[in-house]
Write the structure tokens for this entry.
Amino acid sequence: MSARFQNKIAVVTGAGSVGPGWGNGRAIAVALVREGAHVVALDISLRSMDETLASARTQATHGGTIESMVCDVTQAASVLAAIEAIVKTHGRIDVLVNNVGGSAKGGPVEMSEEVWDAQVDFNLKSVFLLCKHVLPVMERNGRGAIVNLSSTSGIRWTGAAQVAYAATKAGVIQLGRVVANQYAKKGIRVNTVIPGQLHTPMVETRLALQRSGGDVQALLAQRQARIPLPFMGDGRDTANAVLFLASEEARFITGTELVIDGGMSTRCD
Ligand SMILES: NC(=O)c1ccc[n+]([C@@H]2O[C@H](COP(=O)([O-])OP(=O)(O)OC[C@H]3O[C@@H](n4cnc5c(N)ncnc54)[C@H](O)[C@@H]3O)[C@@H](O)[C@H]2O)c1
């Protein structure tokens, strides 16, 4: 296998997962290590990164390594401290993957103002804060690649009212386009990956309780019914797209989006 990220310093937020298995952040961190990167895995929970570190170290090739660091990406001071520590140790950041995010159910009437605000912080302000502190580091280095995670909920109605999630994930897409233009001449590319309904640990730990009374198989069947391809993707499918966009293979690609949804968002039935 090629080593597209040998000697690169990559920061991945939400590099743990809410449960065992291939969450997006975990899969992205492990894939980067497999292709030679030094990954700084950021998460609010150290414990959630245990499996990430173990998988990454088992699969590491081409000199890939990983370290973990606690960071709450919704808090400016926490983000600043993490980025300062990374720059102090490594001197630069080549790749940033803004992966943290998640949904809360409800439309404007059902959702409390507190939940709305928390969703904005979780899904959108987090991306803003990381960009705020990482862009100057990349600019000093004259190069860099940022990949943000949106969701098909940010471009389509996907079967449940989650107004803040949809609005903030749409915001992530446009934030990426703006920053891509602003920083293109500085050698920094910014793109967005838009995962659809995947089978990630979040399905077992949270979504099934919210959507199908804890019946995981019923929820998976409901999700599969909307997907043209005859199987569900997981975090590894997201990771493949993220690695492509962050790599030199995508050197002429910036300010755009790549949808990873088995064809779901092409339908209108
Ligand atoms: N899972 C899916 O089906 C799916 C679909 C579309 C989009 N996405 C997007 O993919 C991204 C990852 O989702 P996932 O389900 O794979 O993740 P996950 O929920 O399995 O893991 C996310 C990680 O983020 C960490 N985290 C939570 N709050 C944090 C904070 N404030 N600061 C730092 N870390 C924090 C958690 O501890 C956890 O380890 C999200 O942006 C989500 O919206 C997921």
Q: What stands out?
A: The beta strands are 9-13, 38-43, 65-70, 95-98, 144-149, 188-195, 257-260. The chain has eight helices and seven strands.
